[in-house]
Design brief:
Elements (H helix, E strand, L loop, with lengths): L5 H13 L5 H15 L4 E6 L5 H15 L5 E5 L2 H17 L18 E2 L12 E5 L9 E7 L4 H4 L2 H12 L1 H4 E11 L27 E5 L16 H11 L1 H7 L18 E3 L3 E6 L2 E6 L2 E11 L15 E8 L4 E8 L12 H15 L4 E5 L7 H11 L5 E5 L5 H15 L2 E4 L7 H7 L14 H11 L32
Helix pairs in contact: 3-4, 8-9, 8-12, 10-11, 12-14
Length: about 500
């Protein structure tokens, strides 16, 4: 087959193997990549909205480059090895099936592995034609003529200052791997205001220049300056509205528009909470237990306890021991029905120790609200509390499970992810009693990076509510109601420990 331009190479693949034409935005990427390659530009950044097909296009680009220059050595770096291997697999599939590259597949199976392969090439080289590595891997001894950094920036590599510094240090190692004049191609979307893809230096980091200063850039947001979709066949106006509603303004701006919002601009507006006055209504219909709230039939109920001992939060100082109860309706609405600061509350026997006293308050709330389970954050002092709580629940005859949950995601991120989309969509409702709690003040004063007692503002209530909102719901099923206590669940309780991961 005669030499193909890269857009032609992509078109042949899509038409012959995928049975589809190439979308305009992918044609634009293909033209740009070939133009930059032929012009001798070797430092490139391709940014495009999520699910745009940019990683698939990069795999085709790798195959095209190997067809043009069989002696090239390509290294794929990604946030983890599994993601890097995915691009290697895609490139192998193209080489096997594309009419222009079939002759490149080696005869020996050992040269066609999951994380590396070596095509038929003129030279005998130590390094494979394409190699997959996670960004945290040791690259000492490796050599490459092209390094493709595919989604090296993801939440797990950039959600704390330490991780961001480590990512930059790891990527700096590319200079020791890349041959003189070699290609560096970054592909991704920003996941933090302090992104490696930022086009302006961040003064607060004392940057003199952006991390990728000097790189040629192509940036394709989902919605252009005239309000048009970059891929109207797949991302219609309705689909875009749905994504914006489900992800929230901050994430939509970052992942779809490629413009991360500075943390200092993120606010939680309590005026977006939708108030209600109703109480839980338990009934049995057709022999099945039904729990409703304001006419909405509830399908899930979660309770999160972020424990602390001491004076409590608010003006008196100290961390708050907070429990939050959230119910979910089938239509996607979430109801923050109760929030309580336990180390500022009265109740339980005066002679009881503090741990038992708080566990009795948690048990009372779980029993009153017919909650199927209580999740206890076990970071820090919460390690021994689940056992105490189980004993108290059993002693009081309350059939609620206790789920131990350790949080591994930075607090600011999990608060924003839990609240942002729901507030923007108007799907987060709060009982009238919530508006008399410290939570409203926490929402008004919340500043990412400045929460907690050391930052001058409290976020204990926000953290507890975020925990409840982020849990996998406990769904209804069908079992016999325990004697003496109405059970609206109707099924086996299940609580998934998500670790707040997206």
């Amino acid at each position: 087959m005669l030499a193909l331009t890269f857009p032609e190479f992509v078109a042949v693949w899509n038409a012959a193997r995928q049975g589809q034409s190439t979308p305009d935005h992918l044609n634009r990427m293909a033209r740009w990549l070939e133009a930059r390659w032929r012009a001798g530009d070797r430092q490139l950044l391709l940014m495009a909205f999520r699910n745009s097909g940019k990683s698939t296009l990069a795999a085709l680009f790798a195959a095209w480059l190997l067809r043009l220059h069989p002696d090239l050595r390509l290294l794929v770096l990604a946030a983890d090895l599994a993601l890097a291997q995915k691009m290697v697999r895609n490139t192998k599939r193209v080489i096997e099936r594309h009419p222009a590259t079939r002759g490149l597949k080696p005869a020996r199976p050992d040269q066609w592995a999951a994380d590396r392969f070596t095509i038929r090439r003129p030279s005998e080289l130590r390094d494979p034609s394409m190699l997959a590595r996670g960004v945290s891997a040791n690259l000492t001894g490796s050599r490459a003529d092209a390094v493709i950094c595919d989604d090296v920036e993801v939440p797990n590599t950039c959600d704390t200052p330490v991780k961001r510094a480590d990512l930059r240090a790891r990527l700096a190692e590319i200079d020791y791997v890349l041959s003189p004049g070699g290609l560096q191609l970054y592909i991704g979307t920003p996941h933090t205001y302090y992104s490696i893809y930022a086009d302006q230096p961040r003064a607060e980091l004392e940057e003199a220049a952006p991390f990728l200063a000097g790189f040629r850039r192509l940036k394709i947001p989902l919605i252009d300056g005239d309000g048009r979709s970059a891929w109207p066949e797949r991302f219609t106006d309705g689909a875009i509205a749905r994504i914006r509603r489900q992800t929230g303004p901050a994430k939509f701006s970052s992942q779809m528009q490629l413009e991360p919002v500075a943390a200092s601009q993120c606010r939680l507006d309590p005026d977006r909470l939708r108030a209600y006055d109703g109480e839980l209504d338990y009934r049995e219909s057709g022999g099945r237990p039904v729990l409703s709230l304001g006419g909405a039939v509830l399908v899930s109920g979660v309770c999160w306890w972020d424990p602390a001992f001491g004076a409590g939060s608010g003006p008196v100082g100290g961390d708050g021991s907070v429990i939050a109860a959230v119910f979910g309706a089938a239509d996607g609405r979430s109801f923050l029905h109760r929030i309580q600061w336990l180390n500022r509350a009265e109740g339980a026997a005066a002679e009881a120790d503090e741990a038992t006293r708080q566990c009795r308050l948690v048990a009372r709330l779980a029993g009153d609200l017919l909650l199927p389970a209580v999740a206890v954050e076990t970071n820090g002092l919460g390690r021994f509390l689940p056992g105490v709580l189980r004993k108290v629940l059993a002693g009081e005859g309350i059939a609620a499970a206790v789920v131990e949950h350790a949080s591994h995601v930075p607090k600011d991120r999990r608060i924003l992810e839990a609240f942002d989309a729901r507030l923007a969509a108007g799907s987060l409702f709060a009982h009238r009693s919530v508006f008399a709690s410290p939570l409203i003040g926490e929402m008004r004063e919340w500043r990412p990076g400045q929460g907690g007692s050391r930052g001058g503002g409290h976020d204990d209530g926000l953290d507890a509510v975020a925990g409840a909102l982020s849990l996998e719901p406990v769904r209804l099923g069908a079992v016999h109601r325990p004697a003496g206590r109405p059970d609206w669940r109707g099924g086996t309780t299940h609580m998934a420990a998500t670790g707040f991961e997206p």
